[in-house]
Amino acid sequence: MTYMVTVAVVVSDSQLMLRKVQNDMLQHDWMSSIEVFKLPEAYVDLMSWA
Question: Which superkingdom is the protein from (predicted)?
Fold first, then answer.
């Protein structure tokens, strides 16, 4: 029983992280498409949000 609860928590937690990463990527997508030459800066910016 405890094992099932733990698995459920881990799964939902990883889904939240995945959703957060996807949201961050969406927010930074316009930056990388407009300023491709500044992609490393956008990447560092993305990491700071994580």
Answer: Eukaryota
Average pLDDT across the chain, whole number = 69
In one letter, which amino acid is 33?
S
Phi then psi for 26, rounded to 5 degrees? -65, -40
Alpha carbon distance 33, 3 (integer Å): 44
Is 0.70 topped by the overall pTM?
no
In the chain, where are the structural domains located?
7-48
Side chain identity at 29, as an amino acid letter?
D
Report how far residue 31's alpha carbon sits from residue 11's, in angstroms, rounded to the nearest whole number. 31
